[in-house]
Fold:
Amino acid sequence: EVTLVESGGGSVQAGGSLRLSCAASGYPDAMAWFRQTPGKEREGVAFIYRTTGGTLYADSVKGRFTTSLDNAKNTLYLQMNSLTVEDTAVYYCAAREWNGGRWSNADAYNYWGQGTQVTVSS
Structure:
C-alpha cells in the first residue's frame, strides 16, 4: 500500500512559479503528476521512473515544468515555471508499479494523492 500526500498548491499570477511536493510511503516504480479541471478528464502532466530517473512530459508543459524525485526523502516534486491561466487545475500525484503502457493513462495508476489546487490569474 502506498500513501501519497501532496502540498504546495496555491495562487500565482501568470508568469510566476510554484513547486508541488508529494510525500510517498512505499517505493513504487513509477510516479506521475496529473491535473484536472471541471468537466474534463484527468490529464497526464509529468512522469518519472524511479529506477532510472527518466522523465516524460506532456507537450503543453515541456520546457516549463520539471519533475524530480528525492529518494532520500521519498518525495516527488513538480517545479512549475512560466505558469499560464491554462495551467489552472487541481493537481494530483499518482503512483503505480510499472508494467508498460502509456504513462499518461490515469486508469493504470493505483495510488493517488488528495489533490492540490493551482490557480493562475492573468
Remarks:
- The chain has a mean pLDDT of 96.
- The longest strand covers residues 89-96.
